[in-house]
Specification:
Elements: E1 3-8, E2 10-23, E3 30-44, H1 45-54, E4 58-66, H2 69-80, E5 84-91, E6 97-102, E7 108-114, H3 126-135, E8 141-145, H4 154-165, E9 171-174, E10 188-190, H5 193-200, H6 207-221, E11 225-229, E12 235-238, E13 244-247, H7 260-273, H8 278-292, H9 303-311, H10 315-319, H11 325-337, E14 342-347, H12 354-364, E15 369-375, H13 377-384, H14 393-401, E16 408-412, H15 418-424, E17 428-432, H16 443-448, E18 452-456, H17 464-474
Parallel strand pairs: 1-4, 1-8, 2-6, 4-5, 8-9, 9-10, 10-11, 14-15, 14-17, 15-16, 17-18
Antiparallel strand pairs: 2-3, 6-7, 11-12, 12-13
Helix pairs in contact: 1-7, 5-6, 7-8, 8-9
Amino acid sequence: MKKILVIGDVMLDVYINGFVERISPEGPIPVFLSKGEKKFVPGGAANVAMNVKAAGCYVGICGVIGDDLAGKDLAKTLSKQGIQIDFLYKCNRTTTTKTRYVGQNNQQILRVDNETKEDVSLDEVRELLDILSKSIHQFDAVILSDYKKGFLSKEITLSLIKLIKGKNIPIFVDVKDMDYLKYKGVTLIKPNRKELCDLTKMSVKTIDDVIKASTFLCKETDSEYVLTTLGAEGMILVNKDTELLYEKTKAKEVFDVTGAGDTTIAYIAAEMAGGKSIKTAVRVANAAAGIQVSKLGTSVVYRSEVKRFLSKKGDINKKIINDSFEKWIGDLEQLKSKGKTIVFTNGCFDILHAGHISYLSKAKELGDYLIVAVNTDESVKKLKGDDRPINSLEDRMLLLSALTSVDYVIAFSDDTPLELINKVRPSVLVKGGDYKVEDIVGADEVIAYGGRVEIIDYVPGKSTTNIINKSKNAL
């Protein structure tokens, strides 16, 4: 189980339920009749920690609380949830509390905040930083959840980043402070659209505007990535080279955006700490955020919910093998034990055309399950030149997965798919064109264990190169 430490402004959210039946005769204000029920929910950085826990990770929380009843309630609530509270530090300040009065149909009538917003001085928490310096090595990732409530001052934040980077631990930041230089050198910064505008002083009206502003922020802060959340429009990920991923929202209905950012940063860190790619992490986080906004109030999103949510996206995404490679190999072995024939082919499939469709359809006829291995972008460049591929690996895999003839799509980065063939051990190895069996990579290995090799003729005149040349000539 991966360990993640959340550092930031912890809060206690209090919900008081009741109802309104009349307007006060003393003034045009509603009279709220409490039911006498109070619900305590960790908020702010503490809600991030709750979501990290729900994502299946061990989590510790680091922040400052007051020596007051709210601080005790918050610590008690977190401890009951199995969150490590060793780094909750008592200071001479008020524990940030947001009390919401909720009426009929879950309508918020009023919110009352109680907090101390002045910056915590470095001297106040020097003992805490000393404790962290001796314990930080046990964590696989750190989230800085900045709500501008005083704990993550510039001085403290820079000290924390220096300490954490010294241990080569990735840092994920949910920003609020407009002084972005205090986040310099982190792994990922996550602003929302308004925060991005405030941080960069640039327009964020269009998607192109967001990309430019996000890239600027990424370069200025020397961070690896900037992930900008766009509410109903989804989220955009960029790096300093403007390589990007645009994920549209997965929300079906939006009831309450409270905590959506907390859920996003929690799942990004949890996925990447678990070894997932940044793009996979963004997709999972986007799904989790889509679930979050369909809930009311401060709440968490469990990994089981995310799995169910993603499984409903259809067979196309299930075909693409990004994670759980060993489990997939195990599934293939089970299919073979049931007498199913596994067919394997590979290629760049840069611009999908009629020749590809015909070839893959014929390949599928040779067995029960067709696996298509696709060269990564770097591999294509080695084979085809620097101006290729035309389409990214992600796009090529998605298009292939949409074909009914294709059952699984998987990427490989080596010059040849031999290593993958040896792991899959297909019943039939297929290649297109004018190859001789002895010239096909993996043919000797497949034949040696009793499989067979088939060659399918290409459709005359149908090739990616012809399409590219035709397009150039038309310009």
